[in-house]
Predict the 3D structure of the following.
Amino acid sequence: MIKYKLIMTSIVCLLILATSSTGHAAKAEKKDDAVNRFEDKDLIVVIGSRTPEQLAAFYSGRGFNQASIDVIIKTCFVFGMVDNKTYETLWLSLDEWKFIAADGSQMKRFKRDHWMKTWQQTGLSQSHQSTFGWTQLPENRDLRIHELVGGNVAVEWQDKPFTLVATFRTGADKSGKPRIITVENLTCTSH
Amino acid sequence: MHITLSKQLFFITTLFTLLALITFKANAGDATQALPRGIITVDGRDAPALVLNDINGDSYDLSQSRGKWVFAHFWASWCGPCRREMPTIQAIAAEFKNTGLTIVLINTAEDEDTVFDFLGSVAPDMNTLLDSDGLATEQWQPRGLPSTYFVDPEGKLRYIALGGRPWDKGAYLGFLKGLIK
C-alpha cells in the first residue's frame, strides 16, 4: 500500500512538471512578406516604407509649412516598430541599422542634426519640430521587457529596391546573442 | 528493499519537482512581480519643473501638488496608443477625484483646436495642460508618446509606465489604488 502511494505521488509530481513547462514552448519565427513582420517568442519587429502621400497628409494635416513638406516628401522614410517581449534589455541603436542600396553601397541616413538644420532653412516652428521629432524612431533606446517603440527613419532616396539589415544587441550589458533582422525589397515610392 | 527503492524514487522526484517549480516561478516574470506589466521603477530623482496653462487658460505648477501622488501623462492626438488609452484615463480621473492622486495630462506640441477636437471626441471630461512648443516635454525626456510618470508626494520620480496602459483595468487600477493606501 505504501509502495502504491509513493509511486502514485511520483506520477502526480511528474505530471505537474510536464504542465508547468508548457508555457515556455518556443514559437517559430515567421515573416509575412506583405508587412515585413517578424515575430518569435522574444520580439516583434515590423518594417515598411511610407509613401510621400502618407507623409504629406500627416504633416500638412498638423500645419507644417509647405517648404518643410516639400523636403519631407523628397526623403525616403522607413517606419519601424520594435516590441521587446522577453529580453531584460533589447537595444535599439539606429547606427546598427544598415540600409544597403541595390548597388551594394550603404545608404545615407538622416539624423536629428540634419533635420534641425533643415528646419532652420524652411522656417518650421518649434512646435512642429517637436512633433516631427516624436514621430521618428529614437537614435538609441534600451528597450525594457514589454516595451514597444515605433517611428520613422529617414534615408536618402532610392529609385531601386533596397535592403535593411537591423542588428539589436541584447542583455543589460549588450553581451547577449544579437538579433539580426533582414528586410529585402524595401522601396521609396516615386515622387 | 522494494520500499527503499520507492522511497528513493519518491524523494528524488519530489525534490526535482520542487526545484523545477521554484525555477518556473522565478522565470514567470510579470505573473509574480509586484508591478503591472510595462511599469518600471525609476531612481527617485527630482521631477523636472512643470508649469503650463491648461485648455481653460488656468496655470498649473507641479509643485502645487506636493503631498499627493501625480500621474503625469504626456500625449499627442496623432499617436494611436494615446487615442486608445485616453478613455481609460478619463475613467480613472472620475474614480480618483479628490483623492491623494492627481491626474495631470500634458499635450505635446499641438494647438488648442487640435486638442479640443481630440478630447471632445475621445475624452470630453478631460482637461489637459498645453505644452505648445514641446519644450516642457523635452525636459522630461519621455521614452516616447504616450508616457506616464508617477511623481511621489515629495516631488520625486518613482515610476514610469512604458507606452499606453489600460488604467481602468485589473492590475493597473490596483497599482493606482496602492499608491494612495
Summary: Chain A touches chain B at residues 2-3, 6-7, 9-10, 13-14, 16-17, 20-21, 24, 58, 62-63, 86, 125-131, 133-135, 138, 141, 144-151 (CB under 8 Å). The CA atoms of residues 93 and 163 of chain A lie 17 Å apart. Residues 11-34 of chain A have pLDDT under 50 and may be disordered. The two ends of chain A are 83 Å apart (CA to CA).
